[in-house]
Design goal:
The protein has about 290 residues and is α/β, with parallel strands linked by helices. The chain has 2 domains: about 160 residues, Rossmann fold; about 80 residues, Orthogonal Bundle (N-(1-d-carboxylethyl)-l-norvaline Dehydrogenase, domain 2), CATH 1.10.1040.10. The chain has an 8-stranded mixed sheet with strand order 3-2-1-4-5-6-7-8, sandwiched between helices. α2 links the parallel β2 and β3. The mean pLDDT is about 95. This is NAD(P)-binding domain-containing protein.
Length: about 290
């Protein structure tokens, strides 16, 4: 399949991320038209060669497709309501955050307007846009993604997830949860040893320098992922009963040291629930069953 590369792109919304998108396109030699509710935010980009549109209509008409980077879906509706000339026949790539149902509703609304629509998510901070390791997620009509793939690739690796427009934001929220869970695990652990006067920097040397790369081996986790789909959790190397013992110790130690016990207590309670469901002799991945339902 041959992908088209656009020589012009419009960017609507010039917060830190929107500005980074526009600047990246400019750096790749692409003509960029920008619009923002506060026009002054475009000054730096205009100085670098961007064209400032007076209206959303003007911005969307200036390029084969428009990337919108606005706070949320309700704000997006308000912004697009200002497109007095109509949206029919235009293409919009929406990069904001919210929920899958909001993305699907936006796609339905766009279809009613005759607007071609891709939903997406940005998986890196503004400083990494356009650089190595920059990943963007997209969902919606595959032919529309294919049509603009080459241009979207200027921002980072474009990952197409499927026709369901809610998939990009679903992946985004799931991956962010994964990130926060890891960070919170480290922060809680640092608080535990910190209660005994151990500096966080000293703890990090062992926790992040050895423990995380070896014990929390991403390749090892990936190798176990098929068991989640199969619902098979063989416990030859460790059972939920054994893990519950460790989780109980974490909760008790947290209480003894005077640090917050909410998270370790929750994990203990979930483990107890899974064991009650009959997974006591299965491995820790059977905790998946507790997360699959309320």
């Amino acid at each position: 399949m041959t992908f088209q590369h656009s020589s012009a792109v419009s960017v609507v919304g010039l917060g830190p991320m929107g500005a980074a998108l526009a600047e990246t396109f400019l750096g790749k030699g692409i003509s960029v038209t920008v619009w923002n509710r506060t026009p002054g935010k475009a000054d730096t980009l205009v100085a670098k060669g961007a064209h400032l549109a007076a209206t959303v209509d003007e911005a969307m008409a200036a390029s084969p497709f428009t990337i919108a980077c606005i706070n949320d879906y309700p704000t997006m509706y308000r912004v697009l309501d200002g497109a007095q000339g109509g949206l029919r026949g235009r293409t919009l790539v929406n990069l904001n955050s919210g929920t899958p149902s909001e993305a699907r509703a936006m796609a339905d609304w766009a279809a009613e307007q005759g607007l071609d629509y891709l939903d997406g998510a940005i998986m890196v901070p503004p400083t990494l846009v356009g650089g190595p390791g920059s990943v963007f997620l997209y969902s919606g009509p595959q032919d529309l993604f294919a049509r603009h793939r080459a241009t979207l690739a200027e921002l980072g690796d474009p990952r197409f997830l499927g026709a369901d427009p809610g998939l990009a934001v679903l992946y985004n929220t799931a991956l962010l949860h994964f990130m926060y869970a890891h960070m919170n695990g480290f922060l809680h652990a640092a608080a535990m040893v910190g209660s005994a006067g151990v500096p966080a920097a000293e703890f990090a040397e062992l926790a992040l320098g050895w423990f995380a790369p070896v014990v929390l081996d991403p390749a090892g986790l990936a190798s176990q992922a098929p068991s989640l789909d199969d619902g098979a959790y063989p416990g030859e190397l460790g059972t939920m009963v054994m893990n519950l013992n460790a989780l109980e110790h974490i909760a008790r130690a947290s209480a003894e040291q005077g640090v917050n016990t909410a998270w370790p207590t929750l994990m203990q309670e979930l483990a107890e629930r899974v064991i009650a469901q009959g997974h006591g002799e299965d491995n820790y991945f059977s905790m998946f069953e507790a997360f699959k339902r309320p």
